[in-house]
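Per your request, structure below.
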């Protein structure tokens, strides 16, 4: 009887266990996948119930400073899974969180939804901060293999991976777009 109870417990626990798995996306693939790449500032963050009040999602409005690819107008509202509304909170592992005033570069896609979302969750959201010298720096280093399709080890904290200026980031994105266009 004891074995049966333990076995039943393992079956119940295995059914209840769920996980979010994020596969790393290479930068060239990120650029190719996103029909829209916008640089701008967060002007509004609001959470709403979705799915019949079963979950909370966050809607973030960006005032576009520049589009590196595509164009959705002066303001674009995106959907981010998870958020908090009063005492209700939905946590979605891998989803970025935003505040009004954040400066960002976002890689967006809509896939049939009227509200775009970020490609690769936090992997498609690059934060921009102003450093001590007044330069706008993209804080997340670009992870791009030396050769397209090659696999390379990415080491967290690698001193070679440093923040770059927003101008340099724009240049990398435009180079990738140009290379993809030439490869067709």
């Amino acid at each position: 009887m004891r074995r049966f109870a333990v076995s039943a417990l393992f079956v119940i626990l295995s059914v209840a266990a769920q996980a979010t798995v994020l596969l790393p996306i290479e930068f060239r693939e990120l650029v190719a996948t996103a029909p829209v790449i916008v640089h701008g500032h967060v002007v509004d963050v609001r959470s709403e119930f979705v799915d019949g009040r079963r979950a909370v999602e966050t809607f973030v409005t960006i005032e576009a400073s520049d589009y590196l690819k595509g164009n959705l107008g002066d303001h674009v509202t995106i959907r981010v899974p998870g958020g908090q509304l009063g005492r209700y909170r939905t946590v979605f592992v891998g989803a970025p969180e935003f505040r009004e005033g954040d400066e960002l570069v976002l890689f967006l896609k809509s896939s049939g939804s009227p509200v775009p979302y970020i490609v690769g969750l936090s992997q498609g959201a690059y934060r921009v901060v102003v450093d001590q010298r007044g330069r706008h720096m993209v804080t997340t280093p670009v992870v791009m293999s030396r050769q397209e399709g090659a696999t390379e080890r990415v080491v967290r904290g690698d001193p070679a991976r440093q923040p770059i200026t927003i101008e340099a980031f724009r240049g990398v994105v435009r180079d990738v777009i140009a290379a993809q266009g030439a490869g067709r």
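The mean pLDDT is 84.

Regards,
D.
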